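To whoever is on call:

I kicked off a structure prediction for a single chain this morning and the downstream step that reads the tokens threw a length-mismatch warning. I double-checked the sequence; it's 238 residues and nothing unusual in it as far as I can see. Pasting both halves so you can look.
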Amino acid sequence: MHTSSVDSPPRPEHRTAARLTGVLAVCSVLLLTFVAARWSPLIGLDGDISGTTHRWAVDEPVLTQTCRILTDWVWDPWTMRLLCAAVVVWLVARRAARWTALWLALAVALGTVLQQGIKAAVDRPRPVWPDPVDSAHYSAFPSGHAMTATVVCGLLLWLLHRHGVGRAVWRTAVAVAVVSVVGVGLTRIWLGVHWPSDVVGGWLLGTTVVALAVWVHGRRHPRLGSDHRSPSEAGTPS
């Protein structure tokens, strides 16, 4: 298989990833600016949506409990990170793709560091309700659940695409990823622990990290032998 070196001209997909990274970064910074500045139209919209969904959550205890199970166990950030760790181990043990395994681990770590840094810098209060149905700690923006799910699902989908999986597997993976990313964001709003813009911010920032990681992988993918890959990896995209 042909692999491009650091000095190779960027292929079209690399240029696309670079442009997408720029667009997503601009959108993320714009939303971050609105949130940090407490822009009134955004604050008002957040309040209206959150107030409505909270009333629904109080009136629908069974659905609310289901959302708590999904957000605390199935789509929890640590569940996502453990899934990523399992893929990292598989890449090293079964495909000898050490560079790609390191790339995946560092990309997820970057997402976590970026998320925590922005939370500390913005320090946005979470919604407060007289009759809360759930609780959460630390600052609100961006949603860590939404951002982590976006980063992990996005990177794993890209790896599946690179490995050329079958159509049925690909469609199933896309469906699971979309349901997970959208679902975890909606559960955070439903449970009243995040404003809607926190979730949108998590989605935007997470997608930005994925696009940046894809661009880096395309530009920095080593030549045969530079990361001591096995012959099987040399013929298989990673």
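Update from on-call: the warning came from a stale cache, not from the record. Cleared it. Sanity check on the structure: The two ends are 11 Å apart (CA to CA).
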